[in-house]
Design goal:
It comes from Pontivivens marinum. The strands form 2 sheets. Strands 7, 8, 9, 10, 11, 12, 13, 14 and 15 form a 9-stranded mixed sheet that branches. Helix 6 packs across helix 8 (266-282). The mean pLDDT is 97. This protein has 284 residues and is α+β, with helices and mostly antiparallel strands. The chain contains 8 helices and 15 strands.
C-alpha cells in the first residue's frame, strides 16, 4: 500500500502529492520544519515541537497554516493511515506559492506538507556501536536557531564526513564546536561533567536536548553549557549527540581519536535509557 501524506488540506497517496512550482520553499528555501518521533504509535515531545515551530514562524514573519490542535489531528491521522508504530513524522511549512520575487509576498496562504517515515528508533544497532565523528568547517548561515528547510550546508558537511569514513560531522566556528549536522553535540569530561554549547543563534534549540539536560540534572550529573574546543572533544572521556530522530546516540570516535575504550560510554547509555523510558511514558 502506498504511503499516505498530507498536502495543503488533503491526505493523498505519495505519488499523487503535488506542490506548486512557485512555492517559495522550492524557490527560496523559505520555510521551516519540525520532526516528531513516534513510539508505540504515540507522539513524543509534541508540545515542545509546536512551541519551537511557532517561534520559527514568528522569526520569519510567517503565518501558521493551522492551529496546534489541527496539527496534532493531522499527525494522528497519518499514524493511523500509515499504521505507524515507530518512526518519524516530518512537517514543513513554507510561505506559500507566489511569482518569484525576493521580497515576501502579501496575502499568500502558507503551504503545509507532512509525511511519515517508519524507522527503528529505540532499538537500533548504531546505539550499541556508537558514531564516528569528523570535524568540518561550519558553513551555515547565522540563524541556526530557526529550524529552516535550507539544509544544503549541513548536507555538504555530512557528505564530507562520509568521505572520511565517518558517520557524521561536528562543525567548527571560531575554533569551537557548534553542533552536529542534524543534532546537538556533547562531550563528557574526564571528571564526569557533560559539556554542550549554550543556546544562542549559533545552534538549534533542540527539543530532545532540553529533555536530556533535564534528565541529566535529575540524575545529579554536572552540566556545563558553554562552547567547547576540538581539542576538548579529542580529550573527552565520552561523547554523544541528541536529536528527535536518534534520541541519545553515543559517539566513540572524534577526528580519528578513539574515546575511552572505543565503546559507548556509561553516561550516554544511561541518558539514552532514561530518555526512552520517559518518552514512552509521556508520549501522547
Amino acid at each position: 500500500m502506498s504511503r499516505i501524506v498530507y498536502v495543503n488540506g488533503e491526505f493523498v497517496p505519495e505519488e499523487d502529492a503535488k506542490i506548486s512550482v512557485f512555492d517559495r520553499g522550492f524557490l527560496f528555501a523559505d520555510g521551516v520544519y519540525e520532526v516528531t518521533s513516534i513510539l508505540d504509535g504515540k507522539l513524543v515531545d509534541f508540545p515542545g515541537h509546536m512551541t519551537r515551530l511557532a517561534r520559527s514562524l514568528s522569526e520569519l514573519e510567517m503565518d501558521a497554516p493551522v492551529s496546534d490542535e489541527e496539527m496534532e489531528a493531522i499527525h494522528r491521522r497519518l499514524i493511523v493511515e500509515n499504521d505507524l508504530t515507530e518512526g518519524l513524522i516530518y512537517l514543513q511549512v513554507t510561505r506559500g506559492a507566489a511569482d518569484r520575487d525576493f521580497t515576501y509576498p502579501v496575502g499568500v496562504k502558507p503551504s503545509l506538507v507532512l509525511f511519515s517515515q517508519a524507522k527503528q528508533l529505540a532499538d537500533t544497532p548504531m546505539a550499541e556501536k556508537g558514531l564516528k565523528i569528523a570535524f568540518v568547517e561550519d558553513i551555515r548561515w547565522g540563524r541556526r536557531d530557526i529550524k529552516t528547510v535550507q539544509l544544503l550546508a549541513p548536507s555538504m558537511c555530512k557528505m564530507a564526513a562520509k568521505a572520511q569514513g565517518c558517520d557524521d560531522a561536528w562543525m567548527i566556528e571560531d575554533e569551537h564546536i557548534t553542533e552536529g549536522t542534524s543534532n546537538n553535540a556533547y562531550i563528557v569530561t574526564k571528571d564526569g561533567a557533560i559539556v554542550t554549547r549554550n543556546l544562542s543563534n549559533s545552534i538549534l534549540h533542540g527539543i530532545t536536548r532540553a529533555a536530556v539536560l533535564r534528565l541529566a540534572a535529575e540524575a545529579q550529573i554536572r552540566i556545563e553549557e558553554r562552547p567547547f574546543t576540538p581539542e576538548e572533544a579529542r580529550n573527552a572521556q565520552e561523547a554523544f549527540v541528541t536529536a528527535a530522530s536518534s534520541f541519545v546516540m553515543p559517539v566513540v570516535e572524534v577526528d580519528g581519536v578513539t574515546l575511552g575504550d572505543g565503546t559507548p560510554g556509561p553516561i550516554a547509555k544511561r541518558l539514552r535509557e532514561l530518555y526512552i523510558a520517559e518518552a514512552r511514558a509521556a508520549a501522547i
